[in-house]
């Protein structure tokens, strides 16, 4: 919390509008993390292939020791992006919120999400969806997911390769990294009856909760922490994962060994307690803007 507060004070000093965007009382006992994942999408008949992104805010309440997870649909309008491009007010000026990072980097993305939520974007991380595949496969060895209903999804692109359509059965099943991405981001086939549990962001939350559940169990195994250390080091060095906080060579070079050393200790402790005490998720908020977008 101390580091988050330092960052807020620095931003407020350099930006007189900071506390117009950010609610001081709302953030008083919270530390917020903005995760932005992006990659290719295939949404017939609108487009064969395009780049879209997805925002997830994890807001950790220090008093309650619980987390709120907020997702904002990528189709939400972002006037901040329009102003940055100098096209605000034009006939075809509407721009989506997921374009903020590509137009103005972490600075514009943070400002846009602060305007949308009132939460301070204390720490931001951006990653390509290929990193999600590696995270699931290399660190977790796949993840057990409870699929709420049977449904079929269209093909999808991952790192330039088109993967075929797939049908997900209802119930618990183990998914690999590519299947996790397909479960989260692909478009259900139209013949499936609409169900709120098939919304992109709700499917994303199912995966997120499954990973937390798996982490509680795997945290007792030192090999899990070894795999996490190797993965983290590789992804940061290749810049598949980037972030807006301290990226010094020392941190970048040592993060893998730090994770492994810490993990060995944590694994030993967790063997006694029955697993890592991961934060519980109290509430998920899914924010949708029904503004029509014209291109």
Report on the structure:
With 295 residues, the protein is of the alpha+beta class. The protein is built from 10 helices and 12 strands. The protein has helices spanning 2-14, 18-21, 24-27, 79-85, 100-117, 129-140, 177-185, 200-218, 222-238, 249-273; strands at 30-43, 47-61, 66-72, 123-128, 143-147, 151-153, 156-158, 161-163, 166-168, 171-175, 241-243, 280-287. The strands form 4 sheets. The chain has a 6-stranded mixed sheet with strand order 11-4-1-2-3-12, with helices on both faces. It has a two-stranded antiparallel ribbon with strand order 5-10. Helix 6 (129-140) crosses helix 7, helix 6 runs antiparallel to helix 9 and helix 7 packs antiparallel against helix 8.
Q: What form results from the Cα inertia axes? A: globular
How many strand segments?
12
Order of strands, widest sheet:
11-4-1-2-3-12
Largest sheet: 6 strands, mixed
Content of β-strand: 25-35%
- Helix/strand order, N-terminal first: HHHEEEHHEHEEEEEEHHHEHE
Helicity range: 40-55%
The unreliable regions are: 249-275, 290-295
- Cα end-to-end separation: 42 Å
Total helical segments? 10
- The overall pLDDT average reads 82
C-alpha-based Rg, rounded: 20 Å
Supply the helix-strand structural class.
alpha+beta
What order do the helices and strands come in, and which of them pair?
Layout: H1 2-14, H2 18-21, H3 24-27, E1 30-43, E2 47-61, E3 66-72, H4 79-85, H5 100-117, E4 123-128, H6 129-140, E5 143-147, E6 151-153, E7 156-158, E8 161-163, E9 166-168, E10 171-175, H7 177-185, H8 200-218, H9 222-238, E11 241-243, H10 249-273, E12 280-287
Parallel strand pairs: 1-4, 3-12
Antiparallel strand pairs: 1-2, 2-3, 4-11, 5-10, 6-9, 7-8
Helix pairs in contact: 4-5, 6-7, 6-9, 7-8, 9-10
């Amino acid at each position: 919390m101390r580091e988050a507060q330092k960052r807020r004070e620095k931003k407020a000093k350099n930006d007189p509008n900071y506390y117009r965007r950010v609610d001081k009382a709302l953030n008083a006992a919270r530390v917020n993390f903005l995760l932005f994942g992006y990659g290719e999408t295939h949404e017939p008949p609108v487009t064969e292939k395009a780049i879209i992104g997805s925002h997830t805010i994890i807001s950790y309440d220090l008093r309650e020791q619980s987390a709120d997870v907020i997702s904002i649909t990528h189709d939400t309008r972002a006037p901040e992006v329009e102003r940055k491009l100098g096209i605000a007010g034009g006939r075809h000026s509407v721009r989506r919120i997921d374009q903020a990072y590509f137009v103005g980097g972490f600075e514009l993305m943070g400002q846009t999400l602060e305007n949308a939520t009132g939460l301070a974007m204390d720490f931001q991380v951006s990653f390509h969806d290929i990193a999600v595949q590696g995270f699931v496969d290399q660190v977790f060895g796949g993840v057990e997911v409870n699929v709420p209903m049977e449904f079929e999804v269209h093909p999808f692109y991952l790192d330039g390769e088109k993967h075929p359509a797939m049908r997900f059965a209802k119930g618990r099943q183990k998914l690999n990294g590519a299947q996790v991405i397909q479960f989260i981001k692909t478009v259900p086939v139209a013949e499936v009856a609409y169900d709120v549990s098939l919304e992109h962001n709700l499917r994303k939350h199912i995966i997120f909760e499954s990973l937390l559940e798996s982490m509680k169990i795997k945290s007792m195994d030192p090999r899990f922490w070894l795999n996490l250390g190797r993965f983290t080091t590789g992804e940061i060095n290749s810049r598949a994962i980037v972030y807006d906080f301290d990226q010094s060579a020392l941190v970048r070079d040592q993060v893998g060994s730090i994770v492994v050393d810490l993990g060995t200790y944590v694994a030993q402790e967790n063997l006694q307690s029955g697993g890592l005490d991961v934060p519980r998720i109290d509430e998920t908020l899914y924010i949708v803007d029904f503004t029509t977008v014209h291109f």
